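Page 42, continued from yesterday. The earlier attempt failed because a stray header line got pasted into the input along with the sequence. Redoing it now with the clean sequence only.
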Amino acid sequence: MPFSEPHARAACNFFEKILKHSADEWYGKPFMLAPWEEEALNAIFGNIDENGNRIIETAYLEVPKKSGKSEFVAGLIVMMLTLDKMPGCQIYGAASVTKQALNVYRVVTKMIE
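This time it went through. C-alpha coordinates are written below.
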Protein backbone atom coordinates (compact mmCIF):
# COMPACT_ATOMS: atom_id res chain seq x y z
CA MET A 1 0.00 0.00 0.00
CA PRO A 2 1.95 3.04 -1.25
CA PHE A 3 1.54 6.54 0.13
CA SER A 4 0.87 9.24 -2.46
CA GLU A 5 2.00 12.70 -1.47
CA PRO A 6 0.19 14.27 -4.49
CA HIS A 7 -3.13 12.66 -3.47
CA ALA A 8 -2.72 13.76 0.15
CA ARG A 9 -1.67 17.27 -0.88
CA ALA A 10 -4.66 17.59 -3.25
CA ALA A 11 -7.06 16.96 -0.36
CA CYS A 12 -5.29 19.51 1.84
CA ASN A 13 -5.19 22.03 -1.02
CA PHE A 14 -8.95 21.68 -1.53
CA PHE A 15 -9.50 22.82 2.05
CA GLU A 16 -6.88 25.57 2.10
CA LYS A 17 -7.35 27.01 -1.40
CA ILE A 18 -11.04 26.49 -2.13
CA LEU A 19 -13.04 26.26 1.09
CA LYS A 20 -13.92 29.20 3.29
CA HIS A 21 -15.10 29.11 6.89
CA SER A 22 -18.82 29.69 7.34
CA ALA A 23 -19.21 31.10 10.85
CA ASP A 24 -17.95 33.23 13.70
CA GLU A 25 -14.73 35.21 13.55
CA TRP A 26 -13.39 32.95 10.77
CA TYR A 27 -16.33 33.63 8.42
CA GLY A 28 -15.14 33.97 4.82
CA LYS A 29 -11.51 33.23 5.66
CA PRO A 30 -9.59 30.41 3.98
CA PHE A 31 -9.83 27.05 5.75
CA MET A 32 -6.31 26.68 7.12
CA LEU A 33 -5.94 23.16 8.46
CA ALA A 34 -5.08 22.37 12.06
CA PRO A 35 -2.37 19.70 12.42
CA TRP A 36 -4.92 17.00 13.35
CA GLU A 37 -7.01 17.85 10.27
CA GLU A 38 -4.02 17.66 7.94
CA GLU A 39 -2.98 14.34 9.50
CA ALA A 40 -6.48 12.94 8.96
CA LEU A 41 -6.60 14.08 5.32
CA ASN A 42 -3.15 12.61 4.66
CA ALA A 43 -4.18 9.26 6.15
CA ILE A 44 -7.51 9.09 4.31
CA PHE A 45 -6.50 10.37 0.89
CA GLY A 46 -2.78 9.63 0.71
CA ASN A 47 -3.04 5.87 1.11
CA ILE A 48 -3.74 4.43 -2.31
CA ASP A 49 -3.63 1.04 -4.01
CA GLU A 50 -1.44 0.10 -6.98
CA ASN A 51 -4.08 1.53 -9.35
CA GLY A 52 -4.08 4.94 -7.65
CA ASN A 53 -7.44 4.44 -5.90
CA ARG A 54 -8.02 5.53 -2.32
CA ILE A 55 -8.03 2.51 -0.01
CA ILE A 56 -9.71 4.16 2.98
CA GLU A 57 -13.47 3.82 2.53
CA THR A 58 -14.66 4.66 6.04
CA ALA A 59 -13.12 7.08 8.51
CA TYR A 60 -13.98 7.56 12.16
CA LEU A 61 -12.53 10.56 13.95
CA GLU A 62 -13.01 11.33 17.61
CA VAL A 63 -11.94 14.80 18.66
CA PRO A 64 -12.77 17.08 21.63
CA LYS A 65 -15.46 19.72 21.77
CA LYS A 66 -14.83 23.10 20.18
CA SER A 67 -12.13 21.81 17.86
CA GLY A 68 -13.85 22.69 14.57
CA LYS A 69 -15.31 19.25 13.85
CA SER A 70 -18.46 20.52 12.15
CA GLU A 71 -16.55 22.74 9.71
CA PHE A 72 -14.03 19.97 8.99
CA VAL A 73 -16.69 17.31 8.38
CA ALA A 74 -18.66 19.74 6.21
CA GLY A 75 -15.51 20.38 4.18
CA LEU A 76 -15.01 16.63 3.73
CA ILE A 77 -18.59 16.27 2.52
CA VAL A 78 -18.24 19.14 0.03
CA MET A 79 -14.94 17.74 -1.24
CA MET A 80 -16.35 14.23 -1.66
CA LEU A 81 -19.47 15.55 -3.39
CA THR A 82 -17.44 17.49 -5.92
CA LEU A 83 -14.21 15.58 -6.49
CA ASP A 84 -14.49 11.93 -5.54
CA LYS A 85 -14.06 9.58 -8.49
CA MET A 86 -14.63 6.31 -6.65
CA PRO A 87 -17.33 4.30 -8.43
CA GLY A 88 -20.58 4.21 -6.47
CA CYS A 89 -19.30 6.53 -3.77
CA GLN A 90 -21.85 7.28 -1.08
CA ILE A 91 -21.38 10.01 1.51
CA TYR A 92 -22.88 9.74 4.97
CA GLY A 93 -22.59 12.07 7.92
CA ALA A 94 -23.55 10.80 11.34
CA ALA A 95 -23.97 12.42 14.72
CA SER A 96 -25.13 11.29 18.11
CA VAL A 97 -28.00 13.79 18.05
CA THR A 98 -30.11 15.25 15.23
CA LYS A 99 -29.19 18.82 16.18
CA GLN A 100 -25.50 18.15 15.54
CA ALA A 101 -26.24 16.49 12.20
CA LEU A 102 -28.28 19.55 11.20
CA ASN A 103 -25.40 21.82 12.20
CA VAL A 104 -23.10 20.01 9.77
CA TYR A 105 -25.77 20.11 7.05
CA ARG A 106 -26.11 23.89 7.50
CA VAL A 107 -22.35 24.36 7.25
CA VAL A 108 -22.27 22.28 4.04
CA THR A 109 -24.97 24.47 2.47
CA LYS A 110 -23.12 27.67 3.50
CA MET A 111 -19.84 26.38 2.06
CA ILE A 112 -21.53 25.51 -1.22
CA GLU A 113 -23.22 28.91 -1.41
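Notes: Residues 14 and 98 are 28 Å apart (CA to CA).
Reminder to self: strip header lines before submitting.
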